[in-house]
Design brief:
Length: 447
């Protein structure tokens, strides 16, 4: 719909959704103005169903839903460990262990024709297991056979929670809570299950830590290998309920970000064998006899990073970046007053033919440096914003990048990837951008 709107109205237009007015922009200069004008506490549109659930259960709003000083308190605690590359690189061995378990699982469940029957489920479990090792230094047991029923329920609750939230996003609370209540009841049910599972993990870890922590200063300075929950507890800046919500939000966010990007990268590589061959040659030349890619090795793989970046151009994690403007702006010649709800159209901007040559083509070379770069005509950093920008940038960015890159490096060394979908699989907006059709990915052993 937004692509048609842009063709009809240009790079800025206004939509009415009930009582809300939304301004959609798809020009890099306008995106820069909106994001550069963010105040001390950047504000984005609330996810109303999730806010209503938190109120119902008397839970803190956390970094995802809070505003102003409350948001700053959460974000300050989280940034130090989650947004610094050096901090995240220390978790490479844990993530590699989870990747090895996923590869073994894929071998066991692969059909004779190479297709993985439910690859979305397997990749989601990998993402959940990986982020849990970073947050709690704990394995959830997603790949255990048989899997613990509680772990299976947690996986199901996450997927159904997202679906229920998506159904309610554009519906006023008084309608979904008191008139058409079916999806609201589902959201409450699956949220309760997910929060209880994650809360049990947090409390188990907390009890062990409370016996060991003699001084907050000791543990927060004790080295890079401390897990994230231990660090948050030791700072003393969040109370028990706030720390629990913070961990749960990071667990959910880390799962969604990595899962979507891994699936679409597999899909794109499976449709572009020449790209896949080029990537395999790069990984082989860097890895040599090594099987466990750490941060130093991944840094030497620019084409791998470019493949992931090109995936995020074509199939971004979210359809648009929402912001509420802090002051009056002029966007594409129009006056936009303060407190306007603006959507920065990431999906549309990634397919702008004036910026990207053959925008529908999967071309990782767009993201290489120097003379190897081709197919990308913009120098603006605001043309491409896969993880957002500024203080509201995605908290799971660093961990997700390591999860995605390390897994792709392992897979490309062992398998030829083929996309078996009979028709083009397109992204659709379901709170996050999701495949319209079930992914059909085949993995064939390399000869």
């Amino acid at each position: 719909m937004t692509e048609r709107r842009k063709q009809k109205y240009g790079p800025i237009y206004k939509e009415k959704m009930g009582n809300f007015t939304i301004i959609v922009v798809s020009d890099a200069d306008d995106a820069q103005k909106v994001l550069r004008a963010e105040g001390k506490y950047p504000n984005r549109s609330p996810i109303v169903p999730l806010i209503e659930y938190r109120k119902k259960r008397n839970l803190p709003m956390g970094v995802m839903l809070s505003k102003d000083e409350e948001w700053k308190k959460f974000r300050t605690v989280m940034d130090k460990k989650m947004m610094r590359p050096h901090e995240v690189s220390c978790y490479a061995d844990r993530i590699n262990d989870v990747g090895d378990d996923l590869l073994q699982r894929l071998k066991r469940c692969r059909r004779d024709d190479g297709i993985i029957p439910d690859i979305e489920k397997e990749v989601t479990k990998y993402a959940a297991e990986s982020i849990a090792t970073v947050l709690f230094e704990k394995r959830l047991g997603m790949f255990n056979e048989p899997i613990d029923p509680k772990v299976e329920d947690f996986y199901e609750s996450i997927t159904k929670l997202l679906l229920a939230t998506n159904e309610l996003t554009a519906v006023p609370p008084f309608i979904f809570k008191y008139i058409f209540t079916k999806n609201w009841k589902k959201l409450v049910k699956w949220s309760d299950k997910a929060f209880q599972f994650a809360d049990d993990i947090v409390e188990e870890k907390r009890k062990g830590l409370e016996k060991k922590i003699a001084s907050a200063d000791d543990i927060t300075r004790s080295g890079d290998r401390i897990d994230f929950l231990s660090y948050v507890i030791a700072t003393g800046k969040l109370n028990r309920s706030e720390a629990n919500v913070a961990m749960i939000e990071l667990l959910f966010a880390g799962m969604d970000t990595a899962t979507s990007t891994i699936l679409w990268t597999l899909y794109n590589l499976g449709k572009n064998p020449q790209v896949q061959d080029k990537l395999r040659n790069e990984v082989r030349s860097v890895m040599k006899d090594c099987r466990e890619p750490d941060a130093n090795l991944l840094e030497k793989m620019p084409y791998l990073r470019s493949c992931v970046r090109e995936t995020l151009r074509l199939q971004p994690i979210v359809f648009a970046l929402p912001r509420i403007t802090d002051r009056d702006l002029v966007l594409s010649g129009y006056k936009v007053p303060a407190q306007s709800f603006v959507l920065i159209g990431s999906y549309i901007m990634g397919r702008d033919e004036s910026v990207f040559t053959n925008p529908q083509q999967y071309m990782p070379e767009r993201w290489l440096r120097g003379s190897d770069r081709q197919g990308y005509q913009s120098e603006s950093r605001f043309q491409y914003l896969p993880f957002g920008f500024g203080p509201r940038m995605c908290l799971g960015k660093r961990v997700a990048e390591m999860e995605i890159q390390s897994l792709m490096a392992k897979l490309i060394l062992d398998y030829e990837i083929k996309t078996m979908n009979p028709t083009e699989n397109t992204p659709v907006n379901r709170l996050l951008m999701a495949p319209k059709d079930k992914m059909q990915i085949a993995l064939h052993d390399l000869v």
